[in-house]
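Friendly challenge for the regulars: who can give me the structure tokens for this chain first? No prize, just bragging rights.
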Amino acid sequence: MTNKLTFDFSTTNVGDLPTPEPDSPYRPRRPYRFSTLCATVENPGLKDQYGSSSVPIYQTATFKGVGGEYDYTRSGNPTRSHLEHHVAKISSAAHGFAVSSGMAALDTILRLLKPGDAIIAGDDLYGGTNRLLAYLRTHAGITVYHVDTTKPDTLIPLLKTENNIKMVLLESPTNPLLKIVDIATIAKEVKERVPAALVVVDNTMMSPFLQRPLEHGADIVYDSATKYLSGHHDLMAGIITCNRDDVAKQIAFLINATGNGLTPFDSFLLLRGTKTLALRLNQQSSTSMLVARYLQSLGFPTFYPGLPDHPNKEIHERISNGYGAVLSFSTGSKDVSERVVAATRLWSVSVSFGCVNSLISMPCAMSHASIPAATRAARGLPEDLIRLCVGIEDSADLLDDLERALIDAGAIRRTAAGLVRVQTSIGEAVQKLAAKEAAKDEIPPHEKQWVVSAPGKVILFGEHAVVYGVPALAASLSLRCYAISTPRTDNTLGVHFLDIDVGQPDGFKHEWNLSELPWDAVPSQSSQGEGEVALNHQLLDVISSQVLANISDTHARQASLAFLYLYMVLGAHSGQRPALTLAARATLPVGAGLGSSASFSVCTSTSLLLVFGRIRVPSQPLPASPEPPLASSSSPPPSLKLSDTLAQCANRYAFLLEKILHGTPSGVDNSVAVFGGGLQYTKGRSGGLEVIDGFKALRFLLTDTRVPRNTRSLVAGVAERLAKDPDGVGQVLEQIRDVVVRARQTLGEEGDGTTVLAGLINENHAHLVGLGVSHPSLEDVRDVTRRYGLATKLTGAGGGGCAVTLVPDDFSELSLSSVIAALQEKGYVPYLTEVGGPGLGVLVAQSTSALPITPPEPATPDIESDGGLGEQTVTLFVQKSKPDLRSWIGGLGDWAYV
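First reply, four minutes later:
Bragging rights claimed.
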């Protein structure tokens, strides 16, 4: 195809597409145009015995006789055969297959792979594709490399025999950012470098009318025929096309074996829909161009291949016949985007696209919600992005409806000069500009000292029942973990974990020579993929056996393993190996079920992400949104706010460290440590973490009984009870569910709900006693606090550990002192804390007021730091008592919090 600025769909020649045989050899026909091919359903090898002008529906499961062409509809059906011949014809394909959905088509294609094979895929994929690839990666032993396929050079380093690349999965334009992939160039590179690999293209966004990837070197093409090929959203279907006979044979076998062939009735509907494909998409594409130009004229960042400044537009024009009917734009504010979507009338709010009716959606909340938010952010997918799927309605009506929605949502306004965009994100723009200016003279992040903190967590309601699908409510504590990463100059990596008892006064210390670490064991950059955080067990084994063999203490070994793993992965991928020491300690009781491990993971991951520049803290963070006052002034004031992108990234890497430390964590502990406030967690449910809106900070007394507990044994005990008495235990679990529902409602309501919460605490504890997970020490704590009229329950797994006691705001300080003294007399360790405060914190501007005028003697002479203020900070960090640590570190300067 030649490059051109516009496309005339009515005269576009489709080249050598198959055409019905000429009526006479003396008058050879020219190839039919695409719209004619669509409307002409002819299969010379499958004639209807009655000459029906419309393909009949052979609504039968079986066929009589032996040795005929058809015997069982799972293996083949005449209606489906007509459809498959037709879509092959309009797709420049020798073979066509119809299956039950677009994802069924992809699933069939991916079954061509086997364990040990590797696949290269894009980093801007449909959410369902991403989900299926993630499943294969974790369950089928298939390696998935996510790269930016809009840049062919990113694939070349992977196209090596030793990488065992068996498939390259492309999508162009991508969904929903409309990125353009050079299918022809990539197909050529793949064939030259790894000839055995299959190039697979998801052509759903274009359909065969606008793009036929088989003509540009693809081996397999698939479409979600639910979209444009059908055009009416009244069926689910998927189409696979190819030219290679060997591949077609394998696909036919898989469809027959798995039984996902399209039904006769749906085949009939789809065949009917394809007849109008060219007419529909021609109209939809024309209107899409008008909508895209309109949005761009108002100043909205707009993504559509037909716009003059769209990246790789010339590539798209080389391999396609048009620009399609999907576009997207961002408003600069998620709230504004939500209002725009809600305000439309003609544009229906729905997932999917390709329908005769126009659709509007927010991909991050709908079609791409299954992709983790941090991954979306890392791949440049804005949370405020709006996707428009243009239908066949009159363009004037669609533009009028969209304009009204933009005005109603406050995205644009009328002025004397006409419509103008309302700048909804000017604060963010100013912040980015300031950060960019400051970065010109900024000290590199690995040469800075970073101070971070993260809260512990407490489960308020729903313990144990959460294992069986009952929601649990958790909240952050004002008891926190703190970490300081200090640069060094001696090619050495050090850790100082003050809370790990190894028989030394200052906890566990260790150092490693950076040059001696097993860097060759770190997987390549692409094996991680931008935004992907996969745990490489081979690297863990190498670090454990080669680097940590001389560390005998289990806790020190695991903490060091988590730290070294993340440091080496980030270091190898960035090409940097900064020397530093990470010191960490907590005001949290360690091992008491209060999330000390997760807060350590968050502090460690955030420190290293800051050091390697993977996340950045601007010099002037966004002002925090108004927060309810905390019950005590001892909590850190959330005066500055860290970005959501930073929080999501830190949370993902913290979850990675939690997997190293615990194997199969739920993710709730690290999420609370990052985001703070209150969260509801439901095991096994998509989107199982929910923020409790309106959560008010509450004052609690946490009492560490110092009685060791065996969480696994306690959970197993409840399971055993459930097996023996399913009705009785099941009733208890439902009663706990009811408590959780009422507690969440109370926690989110206005006013003082402590009386109601106290009753729910007692009720929840009684149910947990019924499950057999309490302990005499916990009942003893309850007896002490009950004498003062306070409500107490176990938290976490029970069987020892901690108890939580709600302290109302009007409870006298004298009485509180008496309660604490009574508990201490029994050998318990009480902590007064606030629940529901801020999450992850980063020191963004350090002052010298908290440091002595004359530096003290270093308390850690065996670990070299950078000297000066950094060394003083670390020294005091080690020396401060736990009661003084929080106020001292909070006074180091300006903190920003999530």
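The mean pLDDT is 86. Residues 543 and 549 are 9 Å apart (CA to CA). Your move, everyone else.
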